[in-house]
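C-alpha cells for ribose-phosphate diphosphokinase. Go.
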Amino acid sequence: MHEDIAVFSGNAHPELAAEICAHLGTPLRPVRVSRFANDCLEVQLQANCRERDVFLIQPLVPPVQENLVELLLMLDAAKGASAARTTVVLPHYAYARSDKKDAPRISIGGRLVADLMVAAGADRVLAMTLHSPQVHGFFSVPVDHLHALRELAAHFRQYDLDNAVVVSPDLGNAKPAADFARLLGVPVAAGAKQRYEDDRVSISAVIGEVMGKDVIVLDDEIARGSTVLELLDRLRELKVNSIRVACTHGLFADGALDRISAAEDVLEVVCTNTVPIPPDKQMPKLRVLSIAPALAEAMRRIHNGESVSVLFDQV
C-alpha cells in the first residue's frame, strides 16, 4: 500500500484490525486512549494524518457506548489533524437494529448514531451485513455495504449439499437467505416469526420444504439466540435430518452459544470475526471464519478509487 494511507483501531477489536493490516501490507498505527478522573475519554492518533487517507476500524460491540464514543473521538482527532479523507470501517453496527419506530415515543438509534459519526468527521463508511438494507440510507455520506455470504458459502461447500436447504428464521432475512441458497445451489425456506420482546419470539410455521432435509439456518446476527432456539424447535417438529447454524455477527450474549451448541442435532455453529469471540466462548462446535481479507480488499479499492461492488460478483 502507499505511504498516504493510515489505518487506526480503537479498543473494540484490535485483533481484526491487525489482520486487515497484514492483508493490506500496511502497519496498524498506534492510538492512545486516556481516561480522565471525571471518566471522560481522550484519544490521540499517534501517527501523521495530514493529507492522508485515514481508515478507523471499530465495530460497535459491547461495551457499545464506550466503543462508540471512542470512535467519535478518533473521528474528531482525524478531522483536527487535517486528514484528506476519513473512512469508518464498521464490521458490526449494533444500532442498526434500532431502525424503525415500532412503538410510541421511542428513539431511532440507527439514524441518530449515523448522524453522530458524520458530524464527528466521517467522510465514508465501510459496513458489513447491516441488520436491514434501509440502514444504509441513514448515512448522509457514501456507504459501501459488504456481506459475508461468499465466506460462509465457501465453508459450506465442503459438505454434501444434495439434500440441503437454507432456512431463514424470519421473512425479513429471506432475501439474504435466498442469495445464500443460490450461491450453494440449494432451495430456501423461511420461518414465520413474531417478536414480542427483545428475548421473546414465536415462530408459528416454516414456509418451504424442510422435512428430512439437511438444514443450514442463516441469520445476520445471533445475540441472545432466542430466534434460533425457537426455530430449532419447529425444525425438530418437522423431522429434519441435520442442522447447521450460520450467521455473520456472532454476539452470543447470555449463554446463547452454550444453549445452541448443547442441542445434539446441531452439528456446528458458524460465524465470522466481525465481533471478537472471547476465549471462554470457543467451543468444539464453533467455527469462526475471517472477513479480514474482504474488508482489506474493499479498503484497498476505496483507497485506489476502484469499484467495490465488483467484490459481490466474484463468488
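The radius of gyration is 20 Å.
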